[in-house]
Amino acid sequence: MLSMALRTFRRDWNAGEVKVLLFALTIAVMAMVAIGSITDRVHRAMGESSSAFLGADYTFESPRPIESAWIERGLSGGLEITRSKSFATVLSKGDNFQLVSVRALGGKFPLKGTIEIAEKPFAKGVVQQAQPKAGTIWLEPRILGILGVEVGDKIDFGAIQLTVDGVIVAAPGQASEVFNVAPKVLINLDDVQKANIIQEGSRVSHTLFIAGKPHVRDSYMMWLKSQKNPSQKITGGKEGTPALKAALERAETFLRLASLISVVLAGVAIAVAAGRYSQRHFDYSAIYRCLGMQIRQVHKLYLWQLFMIGLLGSGIGLALGLGLQSLIINQFSDFLPKPMVGISLAPVLTGALSGLVVLLGFALPSFLQIAKVPPLRVLRKELLPRAMSSWMIYLLAIGVMALLMWWQSQSLLLVGILLAVAVVTYLLIRLIAWFIFRIGVWLGKRGSLAVRFGVGQLKQYPAFTISQISAFGLAFIIMLSTVLLRSELLSEWQSQLPEKAPNHFLINVQEQEVEPLEKLLEASNVSTEGIYPMVRGRVVGLNDMTLEEALDENQQRVGAVRRELNLTWMADVPEANKVTKGEWWSEADVADERAELSVGEELAERLGLEIGDVLKFSIGGLEVEGEITNLRSIQWDSFQPNFFIIFEPGGLDGFPASYITSFYLPIDDKPVLNQILKQMPTVTIIELDSIMEQVQSILDQVTMAVEFIMLFVLLAGIAVLYAVLQVSREERLLSATLLKALGARKKFIRASILAELVLLGVFSGVLGVIGGEVLVNILYSKAFDIDLVLHPWYWLWVPLISVSFIGIVGWLGLRHLLNQPAHQVLREY
């Protein structure tokens, strides 16, 4: 049987019958291997970039000393681990004092990324990759002005003196602590014990910076996660800052979606190609049955065929996919995340195995039909095999599709969305088929003879027509969704970090300093994002109950109820906020005995707060209550001042407040900061330049990765469209040849073929734009947290592109064949 299968395969290869199916499978495997490998490499490279932002792959923080056995376990496994201690203390020089946040480092720092140290404030830094030497200290720029010191001077640090050895320009991990009031300093861990600065009862945060090979690191972190208690915290690279975390999560979702797209494209191409292959072999099967072969033997013969097609197609697709991803990565290396990591085995094997599974799921039903052809078909061509149950075919295809989607994406949400859209698409296809019939009747009465003939071709084979529209439409749905998602993601990221986003914050501004500060900034042509009051307060009660009575154990662990919050009052909704429930107060409202409150919806959800709940706050030993009248969504990644809780104007009257503001300041205007410090020495300046540069750099890399993957998906979609056109090529060739044999002119044949292709393009384009709008808006809402939006221009452009592509490619594939003599083509049939 194997030798017969080989001879049959060789005959089909020479006749070209197996090439279309092999081409579809090769394209499918190539797309899955290339997309899978590229997305895997880009994903891991983005992880490396975000780790550089954190200073390590992971950090482990604990309020008490970390067990040495835990550290030894990681080190013995080959991981790099740097210990550190963080605490607050006071630095002094003469009569000048400053509260600072100290990070004492006990080894190489950072493990990922770099730290920049300058010789004077607000100067360009030099890259370092080590902790400060024993006896030295690195300071943030503002500390030098407050203490009146320069690089090389000594300052008092507990029982010892440290030499100022540099000024911190940029350091990993700054973003997560950017609004800590105390400026940050870095010292050597050995100096902590010498300074005798940590006493019993001192609040110290113990941190491990962890990096290493992914499989060793991830295994260690899983073990560490199982050992830690609720007071200890593990942070990954992408969680270093809200802006970076949101961008990377959306990019990862997009890349997972790209993997799903490759699966869908593969299924469409193989299903169409396998259907046509099986129909072309009905006559062979009937002859085999007449010669005495049993159904079981015919089944075995064509299953061997399927196996050989799968083996050859997967092998070629695997080789082409690996070569293509390597070529593209090298060609576009300047635009992709750095450092770009090497290829891993998982996406390669996944792509190859996925190709075989897709082949079985979508081609097996068609191949099983071949053996069921009745022997009488050799005399009566209209006899067809008994069709399998439609439900069986659909369930098999959907089951295989769902399994592969989950395997590729590991996201049940994305799988559910795409399968739901697939069902909607099927219903749309049936509706469009009905429209084709009605329009065919209309054109049959009004169109030219060539147009009527072209429409008649579509009506003559309704099942095949629907298959073509389905394949074309799904390809356009996928490509349109990819383009729209890419555009919306890039728009979101650009709005997240606009060209002149605030890069400086001023905090600890006193009420009497607000007016002089406004005048100074105005004279320097610096525009602020508004100056907001801030009152430190702690939530102590809810609805006349203590927090212990009102909240469960998990809610009591929420950080917002375990520490003081920055409270404020405002007349208008902040720019980066949106009221999602309830109503904002009007200007006419005046705080009565119980003020109105606006609460961030995330905090409200975690604490179970609702409109009408009453919160009690303790502020400087005094208590004040407020009733929740609205909830807000907060864009924490906006680089603007944001607050969990906002009072209505007048709600915090009588409580001392400091003020906060933010503004954009070009690097050439940095001397303005010195003027502010001279006039208002107690004001704290927080510079975000280096943080924003890091975020922008990673966002740029993510953007290029998304655009790059989008282009590759478009190319894969175009390849599938071409494969479907190749499948229908023979039918159109035979039809054109028959017309030629009956005396039709080339002009008539050309017009009828173009009419058929144009109609296919129109209906496929309409299906693509409807399905694309539905799919992309579901993804906006469920997967990317983006507001719904319609794209009216695409309703014009997608059908036009569909008509152009299908018409041009279809015609180019047939043009030269029309010049062949009719008898030569008919002899092959």
From TrEMBL:
Location(s), subcellular: Cell membrane
For the keyword Membrane, the answer is yes
Which residue spans traverse the membrane?
A: 20-39, 254-274, 301-324, 344-368, 389-407, 413-440, 461-485, 708-727, 748-772, 792-814
Keyword set for this entry?
Cell membrane, Membrane, Transmembrane, Transmembrane helix
InterPro entries referenced in this protein's UniProt entry, alphabetically: ABC3_permease_C, Membrane_comp_ABC_pdt
Predominant subcellular localization, coarse grouping: membrane
Q: Which protein, by its recorded name, is this?
A: ABC3 transporter permease C-terminal domain-containing protein
Membrane topology annotation = Multi-pass membrane protein
Tell me where on the tree of life, at the top rank, the source sits.
Answer: Bacteria
Any one Pfam family here would be FtsX
One GO cellular component this record assigns the protein to is: plasma membrane
Q: Where is the ABC3 transporter permease C-terminal domain?
A: 257-375, 708-821
